[in-house]
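[step 3/7] inverse_fold.run input=structure_tokens len=243
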């Protein structure tokens, strides 16, 4: 099957995965859209670059990790050159992102592992756009240091696959809403939430739940009095509304 046909078939399968969202998920989705809108989903088409950028984004701000990624790309012409450089030289290129030694070593580990798997083909991960979504997630998570959130970010932001990354905001807000149980780990929440949220809604819900967590459903002192989701919120009905 040609690549484009395979991609189209995968997209249809991705979309068939959740047949009908629950009424609660649908109400939350629509309230988020009314409040925060539908963000434009423009995958960047570079899965390996996205993976490296995601490693660089750990434990630092977007601005600093963006600088570190730009520094890396400016210092080395190819991912093969990053792989083969002294680790200290890679760390120097990404120093603005913090934890430079650890991240440089992690990036080189990933690139070396990929080199072995790809049998010395050019380093690239865009073939994951043609794999079933679960297989693509499993592949990424088998790379050194790659967990469910990084794997989902790579597929969602670079290849337009409807994976559902769960960051600290998404995890906190969905627990309070009661979409997942209070004891569900952030890693386990990826599977649990992907089962609940239709593929076409995942990008919007990911982005809008983060916006909600940053502006209203704050970790300390959530602003329930002005929250557009409070009618759907277990935390609100169990605590705030009872007072
Ligand atoms: S009602 Fe409160 S706890 Fe619930 S989602 Fe809104 S801000 Fe968060």
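[step 3/7] decode complete -> sequence:
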């Amino acid at each position: 099957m040609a690549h484009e046909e395979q991609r189209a078939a995968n997209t249809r399968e991705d979309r068939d995965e959740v047949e009908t969202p629950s009424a609660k998920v649908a109400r939350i989705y629509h309230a988020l859209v009314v409040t925060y809108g539908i963000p434009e989903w423009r995958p960047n088409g570079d899965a390996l670059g996205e993976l490296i950028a995601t490693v660089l984004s750990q434990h630092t701000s977007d601005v600093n990790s963006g600088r570190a990624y730009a520094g890396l790309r400016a210092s080395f012409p190819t991912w093969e050159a990053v792989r083969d450089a002294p680790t200290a030289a890679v760390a120097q290129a990404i120093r603005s992102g913090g934890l430079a030694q650890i991240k440089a070593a992690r990036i080189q580990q990933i690139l070396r592992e990929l080199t072995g798997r790809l049998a010395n083909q050019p380093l690239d991960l865009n073939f994951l756009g043609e794999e079933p979504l679960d297989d693509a997630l499993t592949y990424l998570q088998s790379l050194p240091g790659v967990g469910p959130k990084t794997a989902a970010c790579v597929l969602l932001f670079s290849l337009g696959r409807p994976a559902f990354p769960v960051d600290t905001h998404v995890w906190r807000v969905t627990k309070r809403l009661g979409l997942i149980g209070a004891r569900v780990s952030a890693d386990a929440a990826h599977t649990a939430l992907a089962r609940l949220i239709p593929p076409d809604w995942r990008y919007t819900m990911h982005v809008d739940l983060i916006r909600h967590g940053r502006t209203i459903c704050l970790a300390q002192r959530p602003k329930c009095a002005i929250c557009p989701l409070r009618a759907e919120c277990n935390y609100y009905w169990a605590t705030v509304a009872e007072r």
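[step 4/7] annotate
The pocket of iron/sulfur cluster is lined by residues 173, 176-177, 216-217, 222-224, 227, 229-230, 233, 235-236 (CB under 6 Å).
The two ends are 61 Å apart (CA to CA).
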